[in-house]
Amino acid sequence: MKDLLQALRAHGIQPTAQRLAVARFVLEATAHPTADEVWEKVRARNPTLSRATVYNTLNLFVEKGLLCTQALREGALVFDPCVRRHHHFIDEKTGAIHDVPWEAVKVTGEKLLRGYEVTEYQVVMTGRKRKS
Amino acid sequence: MKDLLQALRAHGIQPTAQRLAVARFVLEATAHPTADEVWEKVRARNPTLSRATVYNTLNLFVEKGLLCTQALREGALVFDPCVRRHHHFIDEKTGAIHDVPWEAVKVTGEKLLRGYEVTEYQVVMTGRKRKS
DNA sequence: GTTCGTGCAAACGGTTTGCAACAAT
DNA sequence: ATTGTTGCAAACCGTTTGCACGAAC
Questions:
Q1: What are the residues whose beta carbons fall under 8 Å from the beta carbon of A130, sequence distance 6 or more?
Q2: Which of A113, B39, B91, B101 sits most deeply, having the most CB atoms within 10 A of its CB?
Q3: Given an 8 Å threshold on Cβ–Cβ distance, is A108 in contact with B104?
């Protein structure tokens, strides 16, 4: 819990009860939730939390560099803790989004694209989850 | 124009004036337009065309395999002709989306991901367009 | 008492849907 | 006459915004 406080302060975010609740959920989230999913989940413990506050808070976190948004789902943004670079795998059955470690996949050739100066990239994969 | 007719028929789509107009624009589009952009552009020549028809038509095209949707833009789907596989480059200044030839970038390692069976993938790059 | 965050409700933009008019077979 | 397509408007969903209340310095 203390680390959450420090994380917010380190990013210049004034901590409030609502922001801590959102941060606690979203920074540990591995599920790439949408804003509404964050609201649903966090509201379970903080019933007075309003949707607007969740949206405001998430946008604030993005602005302050605590979260990144990803356009990986059709129709809604998903939020991802800004940790080390990684790729994404999308289960075509369930739509669930999984992180893929950066070293698991190698991309070559992006440096010498004619006409483009690539500063960021990621591989977006889709397929089925294996039983194992 | 004849090829458009055949393309629609080949995909089991009954051709109508509206569908041909949409197809003509979107199949040649290199700009990855959103549905509303398609509407705006096609309406210039077909002023009676309704937004609903554009949405219905685009969804029909996707259903029938003539178009693919890509979640590359925040807040709106973009449509892409289903041609050969390719990657995407997004200009971080303008948001413009460009196709990157499949052979220009190589991805390795996606076959042996533990737990995932990858059936599709693409590299999504962002950066600046070079002057050249 | 000023500043900032919250909550509500209304507004907004992209998309879908219900329905009545219509065209084609 | 049946089937399928169109156009309009209303509904819908995810998100933003305006504003009044309330908490904190």
A1: B115, B116, B117
A2: B39
A3: no
